Amino acid sequence: MTDQNTAPSAPASSRGEAGGSRRGSRRGNGRRRRRTGRIVLLVLLVLVLAAGGGLYWMYSSLDSNIKGVDIDKALGDNRPQKLPTTGQNLLVLGSDSRAGANGDLAGGTVGGARSDTALVVHIPEGRTQAVAVSIPRDTLVTRPECERTGGGTAPTAQRVMFNSVYAQYGPACVVKTVEEMSGVRLDHYLEIDFAGFKDLVDAIGGVTVDVKEPIKDGASGLDLEAGPQKLDGTQSLAYVRTRHGVGDGSDLGRIGLQQQFLMALLSEVKRQDLLGSPAKAYKIAGSATKALTTDSQLASLRSLSEFAQSMNGVDPQNMETIMLPVAYDKKDPNRVVAAEPNASRLWKAIREDGDIPASAKKSPATGG
């Protein structure tokens, strides 16, 4: 994702994946309630299977794959209060960097790193259910003061596109931005690498999705007929990244596609007998751990496994994914802003570890 704040967007035909969507493409009925988006549980599930399937002797190689970021040190003590219960909040980012192996994938000519997928995953006290809040990448936010990668401090800035924060200042600044916009204390950070995601899908053997309409998107390299289609890793990446070739062409609509795919991915993992195939479980765990960057508290196989085991009571049927309520920005219709009072009601419910009211799930801007 390139650096974009308040500059107007180019027409859709000339914008890359970093651009916003067109005014007309914002119309349509989007899914307001989504029960997919379980990538964090998928990764943790794989790690538990690896640890429990007679593969402890491979612990060292898996453990060394995981990269850690000391979020607590970077942010200090000036943060929201922790939940008043034993609930947990995680920030999950899909990192779309074009460095290294990622540059060989579709769309690799676009420079920089981006975070096209962002989920705040809330696990209430008791850990028998969960909710994931998708933050649209085109959301205009107030970025707080953040440390620059090369040293020094960047002053706070208003009307910054959400996904530009990661590209310019890295994960700690994204965590700080989300905490300040929501008032929600984030207990953990988990980032999934673009190329690693591809390898994970290939290790599983592909994922089958039900394509509602034919998709032909030159920007992502995707060309699919309607109907059930088994996607390999490269096709899967194109599927979750496509925007121009499906629906109304909006980024909001793409959120629904991403969540549909993640449900299919989780279902495929559950369908396979990984405990009965230690070699395959190790291959999948290897792909998963190579794709991960976490906060320093989770940056080991033991810590991830323990955290996963603490979530064993979460039934996927009791998980819900919704989109942060947003409205089209009045100054720039290619951007969105948090829709009030719905967004505040949503964050308040998460801060208090309470039930999310129906009104907090309604978004004036829905995409297609």
Question: Largest sheet at a glance?
Answer: 8 strands, mixed
Q: What low-confidence regions span 5 or more consecutive residues with pLDDT below 50?
A: 1-42, 44-55, 100-111
SSE-based structural type: alpha+beta
Question: What portion of residues is helical?
Answer: 25-40%
- Rg from C-alpha positions? 19 Å
Characterize the quaternary organization of these chains. Answer: single chain
Question: How does this model look, in words?
Answer:
The protein has 368 residues and is α+β, with helices and mostly antiparallel strands. Helices cover 32% and strands 20% of the residues. It is built from eleven helices and 18 strands. The protein has helices at residues 39-52, 59-63, 71-75, 162-169, 171-182, 194-204, 233-241, 251-271, 278-290, 301-310, 342-351, and strands at residues 33-34, 67-69, 88-95, 117-123, 130-134, 140-143, 146-147, 153-154, 157-161, 188-193, 207-211, 215-217, 222-224, 227-231, 292-295, 319-323, 326-328, 336-338. It starts with 32 loop residues before the first strand and ends in a 17-residue tail after the last helix. The model is unreliable at 1-42, 44-55 and 100-111 (pLDDT under 50).
Protein topology:
Layout: E1 33-34, H1 39-52, H2 59-63, E2 67-69, H3 71-75, E3 88-95, E4 117-123, E5 130-134, E6 140-143, E7 146-147, E8 153-154, E9 157-161, H4 162-169, H5 171-182, E10 188-193, H6 194-204, E11 207-211, E12 215-217, E13 222-224, E14 227-231, H7 233-241, H8 251-271, H9 278-290, E15 292-295, H10 301-310, E16 319-323, E17 326-328, E18 336-338, H11 342-351
Parallel strand pairs: 2-15, 3-10, 5-16
Antiparallel strand pairs: 1-16, 3-4, 4-5, 6-9, 7-8, 10-15, 11-14, 12-13, 17-18
